[in-house]
Specification:
single chain, 0% strand, Endonuclease Iii, domain 2, mainly alpha, 11 helices
């Protein structure tokens, strides 16, 4: 799902996932054995389907061959070690690794476009901060037990109030605390 959601709306990613699940299956072995063109056709709703289909097949093969279809041994490692191992895989970057680790309860914060925008506008991280700086700053600000919730709250806030174009600052519940709203 994290691969499908890259550069794509949630609605399109969910539709692509469901179609992939129905037509091929979403296990490592099913993806490893599937024809790339068939994967591509089933995920076409997600955009960049040709690149994503190759990545999904390649990851399916890797997980099937190297991990016997079970990544639980990675998830048992310390977070940073597991994160590094996941990022060594093709087409898996920091966000994909962090989302996966977070889903499995590992202490990390994933940074999507909403999290980045809200963090920068609230002054929680510098305006030119990259992924790792934003993640690090947020992890220093919030309690470990809140790491999984922070991205979800920031995403919801970014979608409802702190929009990329024409943010709704006058109705924002944190307007009084926001340096960005003070400038607009």
């Amino acid at each position: 799902m994290t691969i499908l959601s890259q550069n794509c709306t949630d609605i399109a990613a969910i539709k692509a996932y469901r179609t992939l699940e129905e037509q091929i299956g979403v296990t490592a072995s099913a993806l490893a054995q599937a024809d790339v063109r068939k994967i591509s056709r089933s995920i076409r709703f997600a955009g960049l389907h040709k690149q994503k289909s190759k990545a999904l097949r390649q990851l399916g093969q890797l997980v099937s061959q190297e991990y016997s279809g079970d990544i639980s041994r990675i998830l048992q490692k310390p977070t940073n070690e597991a994160r590094d191992e996941l990022q060594s895989w093709p087409k898996v970057g920091p966000k994909t690794a962090d989302v996966l680790l977070s889903v499995y309860g590992k202490p990390t914060i994933s940074v999507d476009t909403h999290v980045e925008r809200v963090s920068k506008r609230l002054g929680l991280t510098p305006p030119k901060a990259n992924y790792e700086k934003i993640r690090s700053d947020l992890m220093q600000l919030f309690r470990l037990e809140d790491y999984g919730t922070v991205p979800l709250l920031f995403m919801a806030h970014g979608r409802k109030y702190c929009k990329a174009i024409r943010p709704l600052c006058p109705t924002c519940p944190v307007e009084q605390l926001c340096p960005y709203a003070a400038r607009t």
